[in-house]
Amino acid sequence: MTPTFRARKVRDSVLVVERCAFCKTDDTALYENGVPICLKCVNARSSPKPPATDQQIRATLLQDVIELTARNELALEEFEDVAGQIPSGLQHPDGVQRIRNASAKLATARQELMKAHRRLDELDRRGIAPEDLKKSG
Predict the structure, then answer these.
(1) pTM over 0.70
(2) How far, in whole angstroms, is CA 82 from its chain's centroid?
(3) CA–CA gap between residue 43 and residue 119 (Å, rounded)
């Protein structure tokens, strides 16, 4: 997925940047699926190679769980922010649509997180590695 530039917070015409959700070291204004990500992490993720060992597969699955947990937490914060504004001065249809959008984003984040947990559980309990992570060749 291609990262998109989006201003997360603007105060007094000044862009407020956030820390990368993955490496936690670089400040960034770049976002991928609403999650702040630095260029170094984008580049590292852009050319993934299939893991060769069970340890690498497990590490990849754990990284997926960590990343999707961060995405879920951001979606939950966004939902709580929108829900906390009710009742507000927003026109009724606009407020309803914002809640629907935040709710859909949260539901998607939770589904992706549950899938990541299932994939890791399959490896741990049954020794079955996901097909997309098995070494090709």
Answers:
(1) no
(2) 19
(3) 25
Residue 28 near residue 16, CB atoms below 8 Å: no
- Hey, is 8 helix, strand or coil? coil
Spans of all domains in the chain = 4-45, 49-133
pLDDT in tens, 123-135: 999 988 888 887 6
CB 2 within 8 A of CB 17: no
Neighbours of 90 (CB within 10 A): 14
Residue partners of 78: CB distance under 8 A and separation at least 6? 34, 102, 105, 106
DSSP 54-115: HHHHHHHHHHHHHHHHHHHHHHHHHHHHHHHT-S-SS-HHHHHHHHHHHHHHHHHHHHHHHH
* Predicted confidence (pLDDT) per residue in 6-45, tens digit: 444 444 555 556 788 878 776 776 777 777 788 787 777 7
